[in-house]
Amino acid sequence: MLPILDLADAATDPDTFRTALREAAHQHGFFYLVGHGIPADRIDTVLRSAREFFALPDEQKNTISQLESPQFRGYSRLGGELTNGRVDWREQIDIGPDRPVIDDAEGYWNLQGPNLWPQEPAGFREAFESWIDACGEVGVRLLRLWAQSLGAPADHFDAAFADRPATLLKVVRYPGTADSEQGVGAHKDSGVLTLLLVEPRSAGLQVETLDGDWIDAPPLEGAFIVNIGELLEVATGGYLRATRHRVLAPAPGTDRVSIPFFFNPALDARIPIIDLPAELAALSRGVETDPDNPIFNTYGENAWKSRTRAHPDVAERHHGIVPAGPASTY
User: Fold this and answer.
1) Is the alpha carbon torsion for 248, 250, 252, 258 positive or negative?
2) How far apart are CA 281 and CA 215, in angstroms?
3) Rounded to 5 degrees, what are φ and ψ at 157?
4) With contact defined as beta carbons under 8 Å apart, do 136 and 194 qualify?
5) 224: Cβ–Cβ under 8 A, 6 or more apart, which residues?
6) DSSP assignment, residue 26?
7) How far is CA 26 from CA 243, 286, 318, in A?
8) Which pTM was predicted?
9) What are the backbone angles phi and psi of residue 263, rounded to the nearest 5°?
10) 3-state class of 197 per DSSP?
11) Facing residues of 193 across strands?
12) Where would I find the H helices in the chain?
C-alpha cells in the first residue's frame, strides 16, 4: 500500500508532514494525498463532465481531434497514443494553458497555443478551467513543502513556475477490452509532479517498486494519487526518483475514467537544483540515465521529446518529424 498523507497536517505539524512527504517521494515516488481542500462536489463535477463527453458519438468527439492541433491539444481517438512503441488503449482530451501561437516557433515552443474545447457537454470548459486552477494551487503548496523538506527555502522552485507555467491536463477514458493488456504502457512522467484523480471503485494503475515488482494503486475516495516526474529527480540529484507506472486495460464490459494533472514549469524554465544536506546527498541514487530516454533540465525539451514520441501522427503532420524508430515514453 502506498503512503497516505494529509495536507491539512502541514498547517498543524509542518515538520512531521514535510518529513513524511520527503520520505514518500524518496522511497516510493508515489503517495495518496487527502486534506487537499478541493471539495467533493468539484470532484463529482469533473468526473461527471468527463463521462458526459465520452458518451458523445465519435463524430462529435472528433470535431476537436488532436490531429488538427500543432500543439497536441484536443481529442485523441481510442488507440491514438503510444507508449514504448505500443498502442495505449484509451481515449482522451489534452488541455494546456490557452495562449497565442508563437509565429515561426521552433522545437518546444510549438507546444504553446490554444486548446480545442468541446461544445458539449454544457459547462465542460468552465469545470476543467476551474479544476486546473485548484490543482495548480495544490501543486504550489506541495513544491514549497518539498523544497523545505530538502533543506532549501520554500520559494526555491517558485521562479520556474512564476511566468507562463506549461501545465497539462488529460481527461481520460479506458474502455474494457480482451484484445490488449495495455491501457498505458510503463513510463515515467516528464515534468515535476502529477496529481491524479481516479474514478472511485475502478482499477488498473500499477506502480513499480524498487525491487522491480508491480503493485496495485487503487483509488482512495476523495484523494489524489501523487507522483513525482523526471524534473524533480533532476532537481534532487536522484534523491527523489521518478517511478515507472502503468495502467492495465479494464476487463471487457467495464471502463475507467481518470484525470491526471501535470504540474510543470514554463517551457524554457530550467529546474533549479537543490544543494542537498550531506545526510540526504549520501542517500541519493543519482539521476537515472537511459540513452533511449534522455532527461533534459529544460522542461520544454523534455515535453517536446515526450509529445512527439507519444503522438507521431501529429508530429509528422504538423512538424515534419518522421519517427526514426519506435515511439517511446511520453
Assistant:
1) negative
2) 28
3) -95, -5
4) no
5) 32, 33, 36, 138, 195, 196, 197
6) H
7) 10, 12, 39
8) 0.94
9) -90, 105
10) strand
11) 228, 263
12) 9-12, 14-27, 40-54, 58-61, 124-149, 158-162, 230-235, 278-281, 299-310, 312-319
Exposure string of 257-295, with b = 16+ CB inside 10 Å and e = fewer, is: bbbbbbbbbbbebbbbebebeeebeeebeebeeeeebeb
Count the Cβ atoms, other than its own, within 10 Å of residue 168. 24
C-alpha cell, 228:
513525482
Q: Which of 116, 23, 110 is nearest to 63 (CA)?
A: 116
Contact 292, 325 (CB under 8 A): no
Per-residue pLDDT of the chain (330 residues; tens, 9 = 90+): 899 999 999 999 999 999 999 999 999 999 999 999 999 999 999 999 999 999 999 999 999 999 999 999 999 998 777 777 778 889 999 999 999 999 999 999 999 999 999 999 999 999 999 999 999 999 999 999 999 999 999 999 999 998 899 999 999 999 998 888 888 899 999 899 999 999 998 999 999 998 899 999 999 999 999 999 999 999 999 999 899 999 999 999 999 999 999 999 999 999 999 999 999 999 998 888 777 778 888 899 989 998 998 898 999 999 999 876 554 433
Answer yes or no: are the C-beta atoms of 302 and 235 closer than 8 Å.
Answer: no
Q: Cα 110 from chain centroid?
A: 19
SS3 256: strand
Size of the chain, expressed as the number of residues it contains: 330
Query: Which cell numbers in the block locate residue 320?
Result: 515534419
Contact 164, 97 (CB under 8 A): yes
CB distance 327 to 85 below 8 Å: yes
Among candidate residues 313, 330, 324, the one with its CA nearest the CA of residue 69:
313
Q: Per residue in 90-132, pLDDT tens?
A: 999 999 999 999 999 999 999 999 999 999 999 999 999 999 9
| Residues sharing a CB contact under 8 Å with residue 283, sequence separation 6 or more, in sequence order | 26, 239
